[in-house]
Write the structure tokens for this entry.
Amino acid sequence: MSTQPLYDLLVTNVRLARPKQDDIFITDIAIKDGKFVKVAPGLAASDAAEVVDGSGLLAFPGLVDAHMHVGIYSPLRDDAVTESKAAAMGGVTSALTYFRTGDYYLNKAGPYAEFYPEVLSESAGRYWVDYGYHVAPINKSHIDEMPLLLDEHGVASFKIFMFYGGFGLHGRSGNQRNFLHLEEGENYDFAHFEFIMRKLSQMIRDDPARASQLSLSLHCEIADILNAYTAMVERDGKLKGLHAYNAARPPHSEGLAVFIASYLAYETDLPNVNLLHLSGRKALGAALMMEQLFPHISFGKEITIGHLLLDVDSPAGPKAKVNPPIRPREDVEYLWEKVLSGDVDWVVSDHACCEAEVKVSQENPDDIWLAKSGFGGTEYLLSGLFSEGSKRGLSPNRVAELTSLNPARRFGLNTKGDVAEGLDADLVLLDPDETFVVRAAESESAQGYTPFEGQELTGRVKRTILRGNTVYLNGDIVGDAKGEYLRRPN
């Protein structure tokens, strides 16, 4: 008479890197019904329906890439497939995407009561990793819908694009009202931002059980400064490529926006503020100053793998155009310094797949002003941070904290972020000794290029496990799309 195995899957002989720990230890990991059920050495292989020999690889909790833009340049239903495969390739098991009404994404306006169910419909059955959405209230009526988004759809995080009211996605623009599909008589300005904050602050006061995991994220740049400096840089004409774009969106524009956002949070009693993709010394330095000035506000300080691996001298040129811009090497080194000192809370990709035919002008591919903003990179998040971080003394445990635990807890993914009994069995196995050269041709992304092309990284993802199911193995996507929608907090 056969007996039911104790475990669905047993991963043996791995070196586990858990967040908030000091050591790496050799262990086995048992999984049942999509959950971790035991983490200990010496578990019996005979108790498992399937056994994977970890062969001494480093094991991390599945990554939470908390800043993506799936569906921005391609239809959501298509982008979800290719870009979630790229995420799985990089060890990401939970993808959180920023979404809004207006041009790009679904290219329409309207109430979120109608818009968001369409987002979910277009997403269902298309993701190879678990997924969720942050939502931006663009029109005044959207502010009133924030409680509906939380209660009916589990949207626990909202976003403000501070520069959108007077500046374009890719550069100067006089068409912002049409771009955002604003209703007649409305403006996307500081007053709108204030009212978003007041609504979320009230929601937090009214919901103490979920209060710590409801938050507002801000893209911090000031449109007036971007307009003035872009005009000066274009008129002068001496700077080209990434150097020109860095000067056109100067670092102090980020710093000033951080100050304004922080004071508005203070004014509106908003306790949880996420400062996104801080790109260098002035932006992150401003965030650290605000943290000292307003110690009662919980500031989430985010940086991207792109701002850690690229600088203005990158041979990628316009293919590395992104908002805020790639900065000079001294800013890159400052970001690494603050990663090592513990002053950064999480690292993300800001993945926005923009195919080459869309990304740069076909007639003038070297013209930074004609290029679109954003690029993919979720597939290099873990390898990039591990590779370059290891050279500087960043521990695997800290990598796990920056890419898994911290974003999971901040954004209400309480079943993610660690390898511990009862949590979702999301796991990534990485060979810490394998060195490889980044080649876009090997990526699952539909982008077709990468600004990281030619970089040599040490530490390669070998297997990605989503809730006990292997979805990526040694260069190949495995099985069907098993990604589930993440209602938050969960």
In short: The mean pLDDT is 96. The first strand starts at residue 9 and ends at 16. The chain has two domains: 9-53, 62-413+432-457. Residues 9-53 form one domain.
